[in-house]
Write a structure and sequence with these properties.
11 helices; 289 residues; 14 strands; five-stranded antiparallel β-sheet; alpha+beta
Length: 289
């Protein structure tokens, strides 16, 4: 492995100053993906700028919309009581990410900015309608997370922008009787493997009628993908076995998986249909429990 400089700024101002001085420097959080790429000679940066010691990128603020700092570790997501109570679907997904050792150093921002189709935190945040807060030396902007991912390894961020926070709207997705509930499904070859396919589902109902449906799939398209056709099919309809079967069919048709060393496209498509059916059946049954 070639040698590189490692810098550890303590503020956003210092981060931007270093990036301006060293344009080809790469930002790094936990490094769980970056260091593997360097070791495999996929990347050869002259300098890494660590974001782990920047206070503005840390912490979880639960006043109103929950604000999660980009450098929040996956373990801290899992342990946060507010997230466990309000957004269990995000915590479910975080628990499936890698091993305990990986979760201790991997960050939310790193998982999203790596822009992998199989990013475990992406699909629950998509169904929660999260927003990304981006910052450059001139200011900040917010965008829906659904606009953040462009293609594998590429986000919508400009070269001088940093993901600083993820905003999650304030609602309770766990309390029975609230009418809002969500679930996460993932299948890998082994327990700690990347997802062969994953799916997050959130529905809001009044009685049996679905007033809001959000579905997002991972590892079955170039980027984590909202299943808009399934959402349109479900919204305004009464949940039923027939509707769930149709949603499963449309979900399979809405994805564009590939075949690779880990799975075939056909199997990935099949999993999306199975996960859609299981998720909707479990959320429908859960309401009646």
């Amino acid at each position: 492995m070639r040698r590189y400089a490692y810098l550890k700024p303590g503020s956003m101002a210092e981060v931007f100053r270093l990036k301006e001085d060293i344009p080809d420097a790469r930002f790094v959080g936990g490094g769980t993906d970056m260091l593997v790429k360097i070791k495999n000679r996929e990347l050869s940066p002259s300098t890494l700028i660590s974001l782990r010691s920047v206070p503005e990128l840390q912490g979880i603020d639960s006043r109103g919309a929950v604000r999660i700092g980009a450098m929040t570790s996956i373990t801290d997501l899992i342990r946060n009581e507010i997230l466990r109570r309000r957004y269990p679907v995000l915590v479910q997904a975080a628990r499936r990410l890698g091993s305990a050792q990986i979760r201790n150093v991997a960050t939310l921002g790193g998982n999203l900015c790596n822009c992998s189709p199989c990013a475990d935190t992406a699909t629950p945040l998509l169904v929660l309608e999260a927003r990304a807060v981006l910052q450059n030396p001139r200011g900040t902007r917010e965008i829906p997370l659904s606009e953040f991912f462009k293609q594998p390894g590429e986000t919508c961020m400009a070269s001088d922008e940093i993901l600083v926070q993820v905003l999650v709207p304030a609602f309770n997705a766990s309390r029975k009787g609230s009418g809002v509930r969500a679930a996460f499904f993932k299948h890998g070859r082994v327990k700690m493997d990347l997802a062969v396919a994953s799916l997050s589902v959130l529905i809001q109902t009044e009685g049996d009628k679905v007033t809001k449906a959000r579905l997002a799939a991972g590892s079955v398209a170039p980027v984590p993908l909202r299943l808009a056709k399934v959402e349109d099919l479900l919204e305004g309809q009464n949940l039923s076995g027939k509707l769930i079967g149709e949603a499963s069919r449309v979900a399979k048709e809405s994805v564009a998986p590939i075949s690779d060393i880990r799975s075939t496209a056909e199997y990935r498509r099949h999993l999306v249909g199975v996960f859609t059916r299981r998720a909707l059946e479990s959320l429908w049954t859960w309401r009646e429990a």
